[in-house]
Amino acid sequence: MIHMSCLRSKCKGKFTIACNFYVLCFPPASSPGYIAARLRGTTRSVKMLRTYEGIRFFSDKQMVILDIGSAYTKFGYAGEPTPRGIIRTEIKCPDSKELRKIYNYKDTEDLYQLLIEFLHALFFKHVVISPKDARIVILESLLVPTQFRDTLAKVLFRHFEIGSLMLLSTHLATISTLGVNSALVLDVGYKEATLIPIYEGEPILKAWQALPLGGQIVHEYLMKSLREIYPNVNITEKLVEDIKVRTCFVTTLERSAKLETADAPKPPPAVKYPGVKSINIPGEIREKAFEVLWERDNDNLSIPTMILNAIIQCPIDTRRTLAENILLIGGTAMTKGFASRLKSELLTLVKSSHYSEKLKIQTFMFHTAPSKPNYTAWLGGAIFGSVDLPLRCLTKENYLKSDRVPDWVSLIDNQRDESTVCET
Amino acid sequence: MSYLNQPDYVCYVCNCGSLKPISKIYFCRHCSKIRCGYCVCQEVDSHYCPNCMENLPSSEVRLKKNKCSNCFKCPCCFQTLSTRAGHVPLRVAPADAEDSKDVKTTPKKVYYLSCSLCRWTSRDAGIPDQSMATGGWPEQENPHTYRINTLIDYHKILASIEKQQSEKKKFRPKHPYMQIAMFRITSAMVRKHIGHPTKPTTESTDQPSPAVASTEVEELPTDIFTEPVEVTKITTLEQRLQQPDIQTENVNELRPQHRQLLVRRSQRCRVCEHNLCKPDFCSQSAKFKIQLAAFYHVPEVRIVTCEPLRPGKSSELLLKFCNPTQHQTQVVLLPLDTPMTPILTIVDEKEEVKQDNAQQESESPNLLPSIVRQVPVVEETKPIRIIANADVVFPQNCLILPRRDDAAEYDDTGDTHNFQDDPKFVIWRKGNKAVIKLHVTPHENIEENNNRPVVIGFVMQYRYVNTITTLEHKAPQKLDLKVKLYLTIGNIVGSA
């Protein structure tokens, strides 16, 4: 299946480690300077600095953390354990007066106007902050289309005149919620499922995985099946989303194998869903709604194979660590039975002929972040944004001077910095 | 403004390229230019609670996490909850009659929250009643706060280490071959090179314990296949997202949430940084401290009537012009391709000097001296999407509109002004308003049924008296300003 984020996949395989711009300071190994500090025993001076940092942080302007997902936008302030709110990533278009999803943009200009409208509402209705000279952290996937990224930066700097912007990788920022350095982060959101393994603080980009499996495809399935049963009822996506959240679940592997066969298990009870026209949701639909995530596509890919394929593409000595540090994030991963189904799928697949040769891993271990999966990435940003790192921010002056955003796919930002090499 | 809810028939083109009706644009008196909500700098002016209308200073807002401490909203339907008073159910008095008399004191009043719309009450949710009306309601706490704070502290330490490192780099001695520096390089580099994760032997106590992964995951409850589901007992996604840290599935576990504060915005011109619109600080007041709406400065154009439009045929169009200012103005209609530079005509009544326009263009008066002030960030102008598809015969003479006189509105005796108007051009005149007649010819290629309305466009040049200069003890400036207008005058009736 050809995928949106393949736009950037030209560099696939070339980058084992990302450029410095994306490397978090969190893992000790990623920052050689930090090791030197450790070796010289600077921990005493660190403790002194800490109180000073606290004072400075409070007097400073608060940092706004935004995670603009394809379905929901999470927003809040740095250093807080919970986002201030989660809203739909959609806005009423001023020209056509219809509610539009930001990610369903037509072209760059359309996206520019949509983002202005959306961010305006976000800043003044929800975050309630004057965007001028504000410090903003945005969480983005490493696979986000360049067009979206550049337009977003342009809107923030040119229209809202924000002070500084820090773009953080979703997968990388997420691990700061755990306090570990290596994790295999699988983000199952609305439009797509993306996976990037992180080892000792470095994203292993050559092992990236992305499939268009997420909430959207589940909605499409539900809409199709419900429209067949109730052709006269107006089945909207909002209705389908509510039905999905309240009644559907991911069934077990054993039951799923029998579903299409003759001796199918007894379906779960049907649910009466009230509305203008009350509809009855059959048990089969409730059970089968999420099956699409586990079915193999033409390339024999699905969510569990993403994890296994990623592990295979990683260096052999990292595989075990990654398999024992899996973290699931994203709203779709919160579905009842999702994690247990994933685990049983993984254990079955590993024994299959396709993987048993290549992969000698027997156990998979899952992390639980101190948050709900749908805002874990935001929390990672909030933890990371609470520290004062002016060097990692793109300031307004720098943006206006260069008129571009540093990007890991761009060679200009990937040049080997001679000075740092000498120094470390 | 009667046309607030109507489609925008008469649109003014703002300097940023947006098309807006006159009720939605500003006029910056300092730049003498039209601004709109798109091209001004919006700021948060004051915070207030939409329910109790209490004003809060921004420091307090930050402390209270942008929430009103007194008002709650219903966790089910998001309406404001009201506080209800109830009585404690009296305990069964002991058998002893004398004692019961003592116990039977005044029943204690208790308070609970209730939603008048969906009938949710705090008693349903199992929240204990409060003895005070003002609250003391239990606050929800994120169960992971402690852990997250430990992680934040740890990250702050790492950041300060990184900062120290970068500062050290700045003051690095010029000799790169200093022995100590050399040694430091090699040990660190070798460790990295051989791929050791370099765990320092002495772990500082500040490092939080890393999260432990487990093979156990939350299993699907087996009764899901047999137990019937009552949808009304399960929360909707919207209800869950109102309380992101809990996101409970059970309706009974929903807790009332504090109402979020709203803001009043003030608008500032991006070029000269003057306020264009500033609301009154008091949240109950609907007045403005500063309100530079274009409605008070730019002549207003309305469509009176238009003859049925036929492609290629000339039709009469009646337009009403209204001068809202306190000074007499003259309006000239020009074709769309007229250059838009304003002309400064008269600085002083006595000496009529035509000044250089360029100076006026580049240097707009500013509040702050140029050193302090930031360079305005330039945003590209929006392209104008609308295309005029009808020709207009522009009149040669200009229309003079007298100043607005509120008393004249009630004066039926007729006009005292004596204007030498061409009766073919000016149809009607009263006070500061006048109706003119234009001839419009829609293009031949417009068809009746393709739903494309006939649009005309012209440049309106108007005389504007800038009184802001009187603040600097100068004579008022008289400027000839221009604004582009697009009018949607109707649909094609019949074919040519």
TrEMBL record, chain A:
CDD domains: ASKHA_NBD_Arp10. It comes from the Eukaryota. Pfam families: Actin (PF00022). Belongs to the actin family. This is Actin-related protein 10. It comes from Melipona bicolor.
From TrEMBL, chain B:
Keywords: Acetylation, Coiled coil, Cytoplasm, Cytoskeleton, Isopeptide bond, Phosphoprotein, Ubl conjugation. Residues 195-218 are annotated as: Disordered. The keyword Cell inner membrane does not apply. It is found in: Cytoplasm, Cell cortex; Cytoplasm, Cytoskeleton, Microtubule organizing center, Centrosome; Cytoplasm, Cytoskeleton, Stress fiber; Cytoplasm, Myofibril. The lineage of its organism: Eukaryota, Metazoa, Ecdysozoa, Arthropoda, Hexapoda. This is Dynactin subunit 4. GO terms for cellular component: cell cortex; centrosome; dynactin complex; myofibril; stress fiber. Signal peptide: none annotated. Its main location: cytoplasm. Subunit of dynactin, a multiprotein complex part of a tripartite complex with dynein and a adapter, such as BICDL1, BICD2 or HOOK3. The dynactin complex is built around ACTR1A/ACTB filament and consists of an actin-related filament composed of a shoulder domain, a pointed end and a barbed end. Its length is defined by its flexible shoulder domain. The soulder is composed of 2 DCTN1 subunits, 4 DCTN2 and 2 DCTN3. The 4 DCNT2 (via N-terminus) bind the ACTR1A filament and act as molecular rulers to determine the length. The pointed end is important for binding dynein-dynactin cargo adapters. Residues 199-208 have a biased composition (Polar residues). Belongs to the dynactin subunit 4 family. It holds the Pfam family Dynactin_p62.
